[in-house]
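F.,

This is the one I mentioned.
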């Protein structure tokens, strides 16, 4: 996608240039390479949970983002996982078997 946009910019396509500047929020900006454009447009987030997310998986997510020149953020969402688990136990009234499995997580 970014390569196609860059081709249009090199061909002096005024509409594409205006669209790019509108999307990135900078009326004066013109990327010099597709990687620069991808870095502005694409953002990836790896949301991992301790004990469930391996370092290999985190590394793959980071490498994939690097491959397409995307901005990448890695974060732990342990507190969100715990909150969801607690809400499930409190409000969904799971069966004893499911409650035991959720509690062990």
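My design for it:
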């Amino acid at each position: 996608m970014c390569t196609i946009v860059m081709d249009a910019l090199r061909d002096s396509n005024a509409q594409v240039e205006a669209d790019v500047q509108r999307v990135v929020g900078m009326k004066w900006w013109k990327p010099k390479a597709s990687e620069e454009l991808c870095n502005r447009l694409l953002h990836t987030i790896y949301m991992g949970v301790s004990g469930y997310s391996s370092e290999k998986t985190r590394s793959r997510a980071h490498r994939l983002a690097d491959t397409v020149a995307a901005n990448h953020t890695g974060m732990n969402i342990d507190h969100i996982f715990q909150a969801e688990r607690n809400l499930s136990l409190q409000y969904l009234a799971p069966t004893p078997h499911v409650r035991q499995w959720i509690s062990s997580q």
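The first helix runs from residue 2 to 10.

Talk soon.
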